[in-house]
Design brief:
This protein starts with 6 loop residues before the first helix and ends with a strand. The protein contains 10 helices and 9 strands. The chain has helices at residues 7-15, 21-42, 59-66, 79-91, 131-141, 175-187, 200-209, 231-235, 246-253, 256-272; strands spanning 49-53, 71-76, 98-102, 116-122, 142-153, 164-165, 168-169, 215-225, 276-287. It is of the alpha/beta class and 291 residues long. Strands 3-2-1-4-5-9-8 form a 7-stranded mixed β-sheet, with helices on both faces. The protein has a two-stranded antiparallel sheet with strand order 6-7. The chain has 2 domains: 1-155 and 196-226 and 278-291, Rossmann fold, CATH 3.40.50.150; 160-193 and 227-274, no CATH class.
């Protein structure tokens, strides 16, 4: 029987990799490094309680448990992901140190005021329209002296030119490229979508507005050739849970003849790694004043 997951769980399990084992391996290696940096910057102590906002499959939360956190709160808006984490915690025999709450980052109502020592995120605020309220919630649930340790992609940095899409040059395709890009830009407008409406300076400003001090932000940026990948894996992948896979967008936007022209041009670029990868990310760590 086919398992039916909500879009968040389905994307984490399948659609972000497109069913490509090599892409999955590379991606998970990157995620492990990000988890370690988030926890290192948090300076988590063994006696402390950590709230992982947008916990997903529990990468940071379970990492905190491995480092000896006294208690961890798994928070997410996905029932399926919370159920996954609960089952994993049971298998690891750490349920007595875990709490599971369904809540968005900007309305952490199930979490009491001043009840946690550390708040973490990994690629969570990019989905939150009201980021100011999210920072207010982080400040509310933290004890005096508590810390936030946040990892967020800065997707503005990755925006391509009018001739590129997903890092590949589509200029020779003319109207085909325009029609394909339009599918994604209708769903995530560049000037208003939460994934694109902020950068690292906004994160600092929001933390400062809510009284956090000191504040440190580490910005990583890279521009390099894309990794070669399988055509099928590329077609079946999706950049985030809110957009279609490439294959779904192509099916919606293009005629059969246009799809053939697209594949003839784009497939060699994908399989040979003839594109440009642009990405920036911010690690922000800040402390709630002791009083």
């Amino acid at each position: 029987m086919t398992m039916i997951r909500d879009r968040w769980a389905e994307w984490l399990a399948v659609r972000r990799f497109g069913g490509d084992p090599e892409t999955r391996r590379r991606f998970l290696a990157q995620l492990s490094a990000r988890r370690d940096k988030v926890l290192d910057l948090a300076q988590l102590a063994e006696s402390e309680t950590l709230l992982d906002v947008g916990c997903g499959e529990g990468l940071i939360a379970f990492g905190a448990l491995e480092r000896g956190a006294a208690n961890v709160i798994f928070s997410d808006i996905s029932d399926d992901l919370l159920a996954f984490c609960r089952e994993a915690a049971s298998d690891l025999d750490v349920l007595d140190r875990c709490k599971f709450v369904k809540a968005p980052a900007d309305k952490l109502n199930p979490v009491d005021d001043g009840s946690v020592d550390v708040v973490t995120t990994r690629s969570v605020l990019i989905y939150v329209a009201d980021k100011r309220s999210a920072f207010a919630e982080f400040a509310r649930v933290l004890r005096p002296g508590g810390r936030i340790s946040l990892f967020e992609p800065i997707n503005r940095f990755a925006l391509g030119t009018a001739d590129t899409w997903a890092g590949y040059d589509l200029a020779p395709l003319g109207e085909i490229a325009v029609k394909l890009r339009a599918i994604y830009e209708a769903l995530q407008p560049r000037d208003s979508d939460p994934m694109l409406d902020f950068d690292e300076r906004d994160l600092i400003r929001l933390a400062e507005e809510k009284g956090f001090s000191p504040i440190e932000l580490y910005l990583d940026a890279e521009i390099k050739p894309v990794e070669p990948r399988t055509w099928e894996g590329f077609l079946n992948s999706s950049g985030n849970p809110n957009i279609p896979t490439v294959a779904e967008a192509v099916e919606q936007a293009l005629t059969p003849d246009e799809r053939e022209l697209l594949a003839r041009h784009l497939r060699p670029l994908v399989e040979q790694g003839r594109g440009e990868w642009r990405m920036a990310s911010a690690h922000l760590v800040a402390r709630k004043p002791d009083r």
